[in-house]
Amino acid sequence: MAEEQLTDELLERLLASASPEAYLSTMEPEDRTLSEYLFSLLHDKGLSRSEVFEAAGIDRTHGYQVFEGTRKVGRDRAIMLAFGLRCTLRETQHLLRFAGVAELWCKVRRDAIIIYCIEHGFDRTECDDTLYRMGERTLLPED
């Protein structure tokens, strides 16, 4: 999978273009669904859905429905899936966009902690421990 460009990089290209048409002519259409993107990540990383659900802490039934595109996923569940898929920050941001939820933003305390955890190779459990330790809501809801 080609490395995704960050929004700032795309904005620079757009602003430097002679016209909107010139910029848009260089873009690849982004018409994949969340389901297609998840399967692409799954394939690229050589993981099974079961492994992803286990690492993410997501119920298998719910996870299968998200992968099949029959169930929407909220922001925290999407982040949990990103951890289960061992996503980079760029892949996580892309997954969040496909899920139709807000990307992680380093100006938001909780998001900054999650970004740090992703960038430092934490798994979902380690991220939740860090969030809890720092007084933030965990990804996996407490029962």
Explain what the structure shows.
By secondary structure, the protein is mostly helical. The protein has one domain (32-133): 434 Repressor (Amino-terminal Domain). It is 61% helix and 0% strand. The protein has 9 helices and no strands. It has helices at residues 7-16, 20-25, 34-45, 49-56, 60-68, 75-84, 89-99, 109-119, 124-133. The longest helix is centred in the first third of the chain and has 12 residues, at 34-45. The protein is globular and about 55 Å long. The chain starts with 6 loop residues before the first helix and ends in a 10-residue tail after the last helix. The model has no long low-confidence stretch (mean pLDDT 91).
Annotation keywords:
143 residues; globular; 434 Repressor (Amino-terminal Domain)
Helix tally? Answer: 9
The protein's oligomeric status is single chain
Q: So what's the CATH class?
A: Mainly Alpha
The CATH topology comes to: 434 Repressor (Amino-terminal Domain)
CATH architectural category: Orthogonal Bundle
Mind describing the biggest β-sheet?
A: none
The overall number of domains is 1
Number of distinct beta strands: 0
Backbone CA Rg: 16 Å
For the terminal residues, how far apart are their CA atoms?
37 Å
List the uncertain runs: none
Strand content: under 5%
Mean pLDDT: 91
Shape: globular
User: Given the helix and strand composition, which structural class is it?
Assistant: mainly alpha
The level of helicity is 55-70%
Order of helices and strands: HHHHHHHHH
